[in-house]
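call fold(seq) -> tokens
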Amino acid sequence: MSQFALLGKRRFAPFFWTQALGAFNDSAFRNAMVMLAAFQMGLPERQVSLYTNLAPALFILPYFLFSATAGQLAEKFEKTRIIRYVKLFEIAAMLLAAWGFHTHHLALLLTVLFMMGVHSTVFGPIKYAILPQALKPTELVGGNGMVEMGTQLAILIGMIVGNALMLLVGVGPLASAALTIAVALTGYGASRAIPPAPATAPELKFNWNPVTETVRVLGITRSDRAVFNAVLGISWFWFFGTVLVAQLPIYTKFNLGGDGSVSTLVLTLFSLGTGVGSLLCERMSGKRVEIGLVPLGAFGLTAFGIDLFCARPGAAVLQNLDWLAFLHAPGSLRIVLDLTAIGVFAGFYVVPLFAFVQARAPREKLSRIIAGNNILNALLIVMASLFGLLLGTLGMSAAQIFAVDALLNVVVAVYIFTLVPEFLMRFITWLLVNTLYRVRVDGMQNVPEEGAALLVCNHISFVDPLLLMANLRRPARFVMYYKIFNIPLLRFVFRTAKAIPIAGHKEDPAVLQQAYDAIDEALAAGEVVCIFPEGGLTGDGEIATFRPGVEKILARRPVPVIPMALRGLWGSVWSRRDSMLHRARLPRRFRARVELVVDAPQAPQQVSAVTLEARVRELRGSLA
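ret:
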């Protein structure tokens, strides 16, 4: 099912439109207010600058003050009811805004802007915590992609419409007020159709002290290192994006020689690119939470950020170009490509991180972890604004700041991937498997989302663990022959994936016993373990006799057993069909078709090495 099909599902569509309309109203109101101050009231430039710089600070302030409280609300109470209260609050805010537009009362409008910040702060933890409750695991990446795409487009359209309506001669304030009230009412109507989302921690003791609760929420966010570093990655995305977007108006004017229409075009390219990248995540990840896309996204942000600097490092030769003239100017196509690509790779970067947090964080703590994420996001946004101002004060041009931002992204990415090698390991696995194979998976829903399980699979090639690793939705501990475990380059992947090396009893009984102990510890901890009971690669394409080690594992720790079968790998460069001399050649089939068939779980009391071998043979069929 395509991710767009979610728009036809009640469990997703009303929420999608509710959050998109809210993002639209935030953007439309903020831009209408700025246009009112800048063009309708005849204020001096210094006063206009004060209001335009004060506005972002007022909007972001509630994230520091109320995110921790919002996280508690989302955990303790039913989420749909909170959403409806938030939308009613938005209607009240837009009614106040209408009076502010009519009377040109900027102090009142700034108060409303703060209220809209509160609106977004309370909605934020619910926005991402409700998705795992509403969506299936295979829909999580696609749902996040749709939400990110919808948010980006809503913000962009809201900016354009908010600017345009306020500039209408004679009726700008009235038109802006009517639109924002109508959108708020429509958003409330959409929220009425959202299905119930039960509280995940109804017994939570509410803490009204925002300071102590903020400290506690940040502590919860830091409790899982992988989740916390994903949160840091998301916050860095906001830092990178804030620095980039803040420079775009100056870059448009001086480096591109464009007018306001070019500024709108530049923002449109970035937003559309982000939307496209967000939607592509589902297809590229195979509907799994694939954090291997994160390093790819980080690489793209840096590569195209640097190229954006190289494309136009100095002032434009032509000035005051409209968007059409700019597109026809020499060198513009490269700039269009860079801006769009930065958006696409931003989608590759941030969507898997959000999905990873949602999938990995405990359900009863997810809203508070999202609240902690929002606090750190707000902090990094403020730091990004100060950073951009500092670089500008030092005399750097907008293009030079792009280059600094892109290079700094390398440092931060390396830091995060060093702390959590799983990101880089998943990228290497994703790249290798998707370069060499096209994998069709049947029955992946049979692998339980939580709890211990033992996977058993036939063993055809040296890359079997990589292929399974890239397609299983849950991290699995692979038991593999110690000589394969120690293959150069791949050793990093296997060690990071916490694979368990094993040897034959005659080769190294100590390694064998250590392997059995590690398997038992992993199963006792509720992890998934995958073994290849043949004890080695097939030499003729057929399945060898399953060894009794699987029975020893189950006798020590009875857990559900899931038979699996790989098809299509026999004859590949990584199998033993050819001699070592032939295997040294390049693969004969790039993007070869491979199948993985996953059977339903079987009770440990009902299986043996013989019955498992027979079932795997049946699953594999005649094609190895």
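The chain has 23 helices and seven strands.
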